[in-house]
Amino acid sequence: xxxxxxxxxxxxxxxxxxxxxxxxxxxxxxxxxxxxxxxxxxxxxxxxxxxxxxxxxxxxxxxxxxxxxxxxxxxxxxxxxxxxxxxxxxxxxxxxxxxxxxxxxxxxxxxxxxxxxxxxxxxxxxxxxxxxxxxxxxxxxxxxxxxxxxxxxxxxxxxxxxxxxxxxxxxxxxxxxxxxxx
Length: 182
Description:
Layout: H1 16-27, H2 43-47, H3 53-62, H4 67-74, H5 78-95, H6 103-111, H7 116-123, H8 127-136, E1 141-146, E2 156-162, E3 165-172, E4 177-178
Antiparallel strand pairs: 1-2, 2-3, 3-4
Helix pairs in contact: 4-5, 7-8
Pfam families: CPSase_L_D3
Transmembrane segments: 153-174
GO molecular function, one term: carbamoyl-phosphate synthase (ammonia) activity
């Protein structure tokens, strides 16, 4: 017999899409988010819950599978499937581009949890160029405090934000501040 880990992550975002993409990046550092190019479409793999099924699902959405067909195969609620489709729709728009991104699409991608690295991959550009364009569009990270326990515990959660979007969770206690690199 072998022991299997129950993988869990916590990600906070202003939209499901944003939190979902961040959660996927936390599970495996080689994953840039909800990427439809990591695994091929396979109906049998869609039926069985595994750690890789999300990427098969992404590939199926990119291949044009309907929300209803994916629901029949996966039994994942249609609401979640529609949110995942939103991510793939933005991915498809990014893949049509070659390096330069219209400001509106860049903001939409960032609002839906796309990292600079992820955007760069889809537009076949560099992460540095995406970061430069993001700064030119005045999409700048900042930190905001949230209270996740209604003042019951003496811990403050700080969130690194990109405009109005939550990107990285940092935790501060009374004596220590843990800040992760943006």
